[in-house]
Write a structure and sequence with these properties.
Elements: E1 2-5, H1 12-27, E2 32-35, H2 41-55, E3 59-62, H3 71-79, E4 84-87, E5 96-102, H4 111-124, E6 128-133, H5 140-153, E7 159-163, H6 172-185, E8 191-194, H7 200-208, E9 222-227, H8 230-238, E10 243-247, H9 251-264, E11 273-276, E12 280-281, E13 290-291, E14 294-295, H10 341-351
Parallel strand pairs: 1-2, 1-3, 3-4, 4-5, 5-11, 6-7, 6-8, 8-9, 9-10
Antiparallel strand pairs: 10-12, 13-14
Helix pairs in contact: 1-9, 2-3, 4-5, 6-7
Length: 352
């Protein structure tokens, strides 16, 4: 029995995260119960404590609302003999068994979107002034996305960055307001980089001030985000969105139950950090970029998550655990390595 919790399900990528994770647990013969704290850390903390005292699951699979605030809850779970697996965000506790995430600060993280802007600027000999839309300034994951992006663009003569206020991940309306205000006051802005929570906020903000223009228009605003989501794919199909990373509702939710089953059912050690690589998807690659056996653009998949394929991460050392592995001494994560060029190249081979 797995207990699962997350930030919220008010945006498309989050709903896909949760549905796919639960589907995979079901398909493996497991059971689960879940809790939506609606981005209230106090409620998530209370839920963990109630779960420990009353439900006593075999493991907790949690996306912590705040990496530091939820750490004591992980410690309490460990003291009760319940392992915690942190997904998407780390939990700052030595008792966290494993964190499955996109390492945005790494060489295959948000820097790739920064490098995408550099390629555009140098190719077109164009100044690109990016409006960066923060996620939540109180959590490390948002700072990681900020630092990863800036590790590429800072100091480049053709790139400038202006930052928004705090968004708190959840509000499309606030993201739209930030965009409308910034682009009205600073018409020289011609790009967006959104930390996450989907594309809808930046898209609708630009649409409201008549700055949502198609690729190729001399006044086109370059739109990018870490998150793959349905609104981004729809608008990319229409010719408005330039790039998104594959962070979103699929790959982390695929690997997390695999790591949990490996540890809980097979009794095998797992890495403290499972750092998954990011890929940038553009209009030219939207229908062609495959990662680990499926299209990177998950909105192309059926609505029913039970029809989604189980991803194949074996090229980077993450095997899909099966009952046949139990008791054999086989360690499916023994060859796992942090993102390196060799790992990235292996993933590219799978995508071809």
């Amino acid at each position: 029995m797995f207990a699962t919790s997350y930030l919220f399900v008010s945006v498309d990528p989050m709903a896909k995260y949760v549905n796919n994770m639960h589907s995979l647990i079901d398909r493996a013969g497991g059971e689960w119960f879940t809790f939506d704290p609606a981005y209230d850390a106090a409620k998530q903390i209370a839920w963990v404590e109630d779960t420990i005292a009353v439900r006593k699951p075999d493991a907790i699979l949690m996306q912590p609302i705040n990496e530091a605030l939820l750490a004591p809850s992980v410690d309490k779970a460990a003291a009760a003999g319940i392992p915690t697996f942190s997904w998407d965000f780390d939990t700052f506790s030595d008792n966290t068994v494993s964190t499955i995430w996109d390492h945005f600060r790494g060489d295959f993280g948000s820097n790739l979107l920064g490098e995408y802007f550099i390629e555009l600027a140098e190719k077109n000999n164009e100044q690109i002034n990016v409006f960066e839309i923060w996620g939540d300034m109180s959590v490390d994951s948002s700072h990681a996305r900020h630092e990863g992006f800036h590790s590429a663009v800072d100091g480049h003569p053709l790139i400038t960055v202006m930052e928004s206020g705090d968004l708190g991940w959840t509000s499309v309306e606030l993201a739209s307001s930030y965009v409308m205000d910034a682009f009205t006051a600073h018409p020289e802005l011609n790009g967006t980089y959104q930390h996450g929570g989907g594309n809808a906020g930046s898209i609708e903000g630009l649409r409201a001030i008549d700055r949502l223009l198609p690729l190729g228009d001399p006044d086109h605003v370059y739109i990018s985000t870490n998150d793959s989501d349905t609104s981004g794919v729809i608008e990319m199909d229409k010719g408005f969105v330039d790039a998104f990373a594959n962070h979103g509702g699929w790959h982390i939710s695929d690997v997390t139950p695999k790591i949990a089953f490996t540890y809980v059912v097979l009794g095998q050690p797992v890495p403290r950090f499972v750092n998954l690589p990011i890929f940038v998807v553009t209009p030219e690659t939207l229908n062609d970029v495959y990662f680990f056996g499926a299209l990177a653009a998950y909105p192309r998949m059926p609505e029913d998550p039970d029809l989604w394929p189980v991803l194949d991460y074996s090229p980077i050392g993450i095997e899909t655990p099966t009952s046949d592995m139990k008791g054999t001494g086989y360690n499916p994560t023994a060859d796992y390595r942090d993102p390196t060029q060799a790992m990235y190249d292996a993933a590219i081979e799978v995508m071809k």
